[in-house]
Amino acid sequence: xxxxxxxxxxxxxxxxxxxxxxxxxxxxxxxxxxxxxxxxxxxxxxxxxxxxxxxxxxxxxxxxxxxxxxxxxxxxxxxxxxxxxxxxxxxxxxxxxxxxxxxxxxxxxxxxxxxxxxxxxxxxxxxxxxxxxxxxxxxxxxxxxxxxxxxxxxxxxxxxxxxxxxxxxxxxxxxxxxxxxxxxxxxxxxxxxxxxxxxxxxxxxxxxxxxxxxxxxxxxxxxxxxxxxxxxxxxxxxxxxxxxxxxxxxxxxxxxxxxxxxxxxxxxxxxxxxxxxxxxxxxxxxxxxxxxxxxxxxxxxxxxxxxxxxxxxxxxxxxxxxxxxxxxxxxxxxxxxxxxxxxxxxxxxxxxxxxxxxxxxxxxxxxxxxxxxxxxxxxxxxxxxxxxxxxxxxxx
Length: 396
Ligand SMILES: *Cc1c(COP(=O)(O)O)cnc(C)c1O
What we know:
Shape: globular
CATH superfamily of the largest domain: Type I PLP-dependent aspartate aminotransferase-like (Major domain)
Number of helices: 12
Radius of gyration: 22 Å
Bound molecules: pyridoxal-5'-phosphate
Low-confidence stretches: none
CATH class of the largest domain: Alpha Beta
Helix content: 25-40%
């Protein structure tokens, strides 16, 4: 008998979005070597790490070279100094957590994928469409049934539960990737009440919380009742430029229980079995993010990206284009001109303006007439891209 395989992998949709973008850009560039192509499509940051972060990491690396400062295996769930920094960060917003409810990780993506370990296969998963593809694919790999919740112009890309809504595991991402839409307190309260009434669990992805400038919830735990129905996943990737350095954290309240299981205890067990912790050096860098000087440096970078977002949204407003996001998120989700789908419009932007966006269709079927632009580019490129789009007449 040969080994049997996880056949769910055969059900995965083709992971072709960024590969296809790359192919189309490469073949256009090959045919037009002179074209100066500006990429406003990728979801990676461009600002370097704050000095205070790299200094802290350098210091930690030097400590590791001494007998007194050397560290071997650390606690799987993170060093106390970093959990304490995260705890205080939440406390400033009125959210009171204990350090045992905070788990340090190597980033949000792995935690989002690994959290699926805690749940039975027979759960129905509710996922908004369009969406960050990780929620979908990790559940397909586990063979779970997925129900999509359409996000569209009518609901402002903020879908709400209704009488017909089903879903044992519910994914919410606010501020949203790709739409940039953000739930307010009342809306999140409805989701929390729904989950508590139904016994569902919300997996709340707060990776972009730091981009919020208006009076909107940064954490689902600002909502009464969330501690009995929600797990929150967060990351330093977009906040502090940690996309390559890798550090995030997940909050699982001790009050969160289902079927006689404490999810906090399950996750602790899962992490101590399958994970050996985030590196000491990186955790020292992460700790620096939460110091007053670290926060100042982060704020400076955020101001830069917000400035880019404003340049993009201002241009779209002048052209009368419908969009969401940009104000409390680094993403701008814009509507393609009539009768052009997202790939057609992608091609047009590329060939007529030499600007690369991300076709909305890549984030789900509800994204087919939208395109995502990001504020993560340089100021110069963002200005030039929007100048070309405005002068190019692609929206006329
Ligand atoms: C970028 C991003 C993350 C962060 O992932 P990391 O693994 O921490 O880099 C999480 N969720 C969403 C929706 C993202 O766009």
